[in-house]
Design brief:
The structure is a homotrimer of 338-residue chains.
Chain A (H helix, E strand, L loop, with lengths): L2 E2 H8 L2 E3 L5 E2 L1 E2 L9 E4 L6 H5 L5 E4 L10 E4 L3 H9 L17 E2 L9 E2 L4 E2 L4 E2 L4 E2 L4 E2 L4 E2 L4 E2 L4 E2 L4 E2 L4 E2 L4 E4 L4 E3 L5 E3 L6 E3 L4 E2 L4 E3 L6 E3 L4 E2 L4 E2 L4 E2 L4 E2 L4 E2 L4 E2 L4 E2 L4 E2 L4 E2 L3 E3 L4 E2 L7 E4 L5 E2 H11 L2 H7 L4 H5 L1
Chain lengths: 338, 338, 338
């Protein structure tokens, strides 16, 4: 697999400075790249490595063009251009050994034009769009609809009736449409499970990371809108709605009926409580707890700073007494807020 | 699937006001319900939507009966009644395309009366009770015992010798009986893994959410008692014991040998350290850390409040110096505690 | 399965005091052990249970030898000796019902000498070493290399090209080599996924807990070095490097390009941000956030202490005003730091 530099320039709409006929057969970091490989400079702090790079071409912005020791592709957003080029060399393991081997596919399923690997279960009235690839050991229950150009890795489960748009990429071990965590307490303090009748509805161009779980809605649906990016081991509870192009890092948990806006960036291991809403364009840093609605765009944080264990013990002693310290010092909240 | 309102009234032991012959074919929220659907009012803040609801019947408490514009079912706990009714309309995807297709079931397994879907592995001397349903691609290792009326979704793994009572609902991707995280340090600072000989023993009417993991005990067993509710992506370590009817929300982690009481409610993403105990009827709010035993019932919290990142930086500077501030101010702990 | 006490003494290099011919058929805690079982005393706080133990032999250090009521095996590290002995009685469920039943194994795979259970997918040019056991429903994609003596439980996925050394133990539901969470923002605020070309490279004697996910590198590889111990539901992002013999407890998340040293012990549910490094021999307590590099060995902590919810509300009011309180009190940072 190789391309001329001109072909790559066309793909990323770049100004080419140098030899368009040089052949590119891979992509690599500036300091590891060898002849035949293309690299990129997206962060000025790596500029030093540019001068000595052995890459056959570098994608960079015009401000670094003068320092480029080899063929240059000038673009306004080098990182985005790198993302585009990376797909030229991607190596998804798409082909099953033999199509449909040991797969149980109901005769009512409409899967023509899709590739289904071995060990899959495909239930009644399932629709899988053309050019979609379903990896080994996936389970697609009755009445699920999957759009064109989907890529499912291995061991994915989509429960009854859930819907995915076009071009979704679903990593291994993902569970879509599990029952929500709804329980009513009985008089004897035992729990009665609520049967969930909603679905999960996922838009176009959504990617979901490994072992992430998305519960179905109680009555209405759980919704993941177009262009959302979900990392690994995320939990999305019943009736959550995630707005377009919001990206959420690994291990974050979102409780029931929370509504997230568009273009948010939620860090890893963030906890978002239920029944709140987050505005568009909100950034929440990693490991924060969002325990109330966030109504304005901005960057938010809430985690305890790391210390030596000894310091933490000393600080903790006073932290848990802050209200009493204020009392001793005769500080009043109104003094502070004025 | 439809029922007369009288049939539903009988199921939930309700007082029926109106027409018992009206046919109900679904359940919906007050503001979305259409003719033929039943709804419920469990929270007074939704009372406004009651007046204009198009539902053919509403489950509610006697205090709201006067405001009901349609047929009413009067009960003392409408949310619990809704839970009961939801099961009339539930649509679990229970039927395999063809029973036992591509499933490897050892001839010594006792699975008569259970339904086993495709792609499953069932080992030696396994017992699965009657009316139990094992979804696609589940792995049930040697000597496992599963009671009657179990519902396993897809890709569940139960390791050797573990035991589940009756009527358990196990979501997709759950792993029961994985090895505990026990390692002894060697002189050269490498680790020697401890082989775990305990089991996981699970009571009746337990539900476990998607991709949750429960480790087996080191020597004694890990125990999940009757009526426990576990949400998605929870980790239960070796030798943990969880008391009856305790409910735990998603992403919580419980370290080795912790013992939780009965009827506790543990929020999402709570961290519970090992070798501690939590009393009956304790509530822990989401994202808290439980680093010591909790001996009294009550509501507990411990997470850093969310702020704008700028405020967090300003506050943090002082937080990590609290002990030194106390020193400057000449405040002593004994002044506070008196 | 049983052994003479002399055989066990040889295995753990112990001084035997008592009858070497007694037969041992199991291992148990001091207070539960019965005739024929061996126990151990690794923590002085359990010394009381030693006197009344019914065990036929006890592993302990010389300092407790005098109190031992039965045959004794004296060693310097009883917990480590227990770990060794536990493997005599381990009961991994290794045998498939029938080898290769319903498994799709490409003819180019080199798997001679390995045992592959039912329902597996093994892609092109895969190598699996001798005496390795692959449990049911595992998916091993093209070009993966797995060393000798590996033990894979069920439903493990290893994506294209990843490499594991010898004697690795991989728990059920683990995903190795999923795509990293790399996305470039486009002008219209949508995301372009970066195709990941790196692998995951795992050393010898690594154990990985259930449902843990390890992403492949963007260009360079994600690396897990020899002897690392990973618990359940951990997330390791793209290009992370974890040094030899580091142990990480359940539910911890490590963001992209973080580098951890050797012999670290990271508690459960710790969040480690990206692009930082942690020195050798660092201990981080559970549920802490590591938001900057840790350059010195030591014990570190950072979580909010648990309180009653009422206290937490009172303390929180003052916590979020700490900078303003300092201002009112006219305390300056330079006063504190001197």
């Amino acid at each position: 697999m190789n391309f001329t530099l001109s072909q790559i320039a066309d793909l990323i709409d770049a100004e080419l400075i140098g030899d368009g006929e040089v052949r590119i057969d891979g992509i690599n970091a500036l300091d590891s790249a060898k002849t035949g490989q293309i690299s990129y400079l997206a962060n000025s702090k790596y500029q030093k490595t540019l001068c000595n790079s052995q890459a056959s071409a570098v994608i960079l912005s015009s401000s670094h063009a003068d320092s480029c020791p080899t063929n240059a592709l000038i673009v306004s957003n080098p990182y985005h251009a790198f993302a585009l080029v990376s797909h030229l060399f991607k190596q998804y393991n798409t082909a099953p050994n033999k199509s449909n081997e040991f797969s149980s596919i109901d005769s009512s399923a409409k899967v023509k034009g899709a590739i289904i690997s071995s060990g899959c279960f495909v239930g009644k009235n399932v629709t899988i769009g053309k050019n979609s690839i379903i990896g080994p050991n996936c389970v697609i229950e009755d009445n699920v609809v999957i759009g064109d150009n989907a890529h499912f890795f291995a061991n994915v489960v989509v429960h009854r009736g859930c819907q995915l748009g076009e071009s979704c990429v679903i990593s291994s071990g993902v569970v879509i449409g599990s029952e929500g965590f709804g329980n009513a307490r009985c008089e004897d303090m035992s729990w009665k499970t609520i049967a969930h009748m909603g679905k999960v509805v996922i838009g176009n161009d959504v990617t979901i990371g490994a072992n992430t779980t998305i519960d179905r809605g109680t009555i209405a649906d759980t919704e993941i809108h177009n262009g959302v990016r979900l990392d690994n081991l995320i939990h999305i509870a019943h009736n959550v709605i995630i707005g377009e192009n919001t990206a959420i890092a690994a291990k974050t948990g979102i409780a029931g009926s929370a509504v997230l806006g568009k273009r948010c960036m939620i860090g890893g291991m963030v906890g978002i409580v239920g029944h709140i809403s987050i505005a568009d364009d909100v950034v929440v840093n990693a490991t924060s707890t969002v325990d109330k609605s966030v109504t304005r765009p901005g960057i938010y944080t809430g985690f305890f700073p790391l210390m030596t264990h000894k310091s933490w013990q000393k600080v903790g002693v006073w932290l848990i007494k802050l209200d009493k310290i204020a009392k001793i010092l005769k500080i009043k909240l109104k003094d502070i807020n004025k």
